[in-house]
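From the pipeline queue, job 12 of 40. The input is one protein chain; the requested action is below.

Action: predict structure.
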Amino acid sequence: MRSANTQIVAEYERAGAIWPRMGRFLLLFDLDGTLVDTLPDLTNALNEVLSERGHAPLSPADVKPMVGDGMAMLLRRGFAARGATPAEAEAMQPRFIAVYEAAATRLSRPYPGVAETLAALRRAGYATAVCTNKPQHATGAVLRGTGLDTLFDGWAGGDRFAVRKPDPGHLLSLVAALGGEAARAAMIGDSENDALAAHAAGLPLFLMRYGYARADVATLGPACVLDRFAELPAALAGRDLNP
């Protein structure tokens, strides 16, 4: 149960929610590029606000390396690619967020095996949570829209705490808020920020090769690189990271 002084993470209000008990192994997942391919809807929202300002659209390939540092940075990079100023991008941020959240899962889909693997991990006894730089409200929109929300004990968007990835405090604050221990937690992601945060927090790191990283994920110091999400249970077991 949630104690009076527990810092609530996420909008996770599902009736009967069970928070992880101390000692239960907690798996922290990135969202974009790890659990869900959100690139199509991010690209569409960005192009809509670019169009409203008279700028030409960007392709998904253009947008992909812009993802991972939060929506404000995505917007700034997108506008910079069309020769616009940071001030113009900042002025369009509320509009961008509104456009994105209105259709956050129109085209976005979980990667193959995500839902099934998460369900299996939870049946095995793992606790699961999402730690993403996407804003809290938008994170909830994506998780609910893809039907993944019921597979997590909570989530922390990039505006939930005072810091966000690559700061390790983002991960460690979520672990603490869920009643876990850093010694019984691991990070599963796809990008440089996931790697930096996990290493600084002292958490084992598993990286997905199919995500949005700008570098070869094998060079980011992971315990393991996975080609498919369904490989995760065996990778955890192989490193004695048991629930």
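Job complete. Residues 190 and 208 are 5 Å apart (CA to CA).
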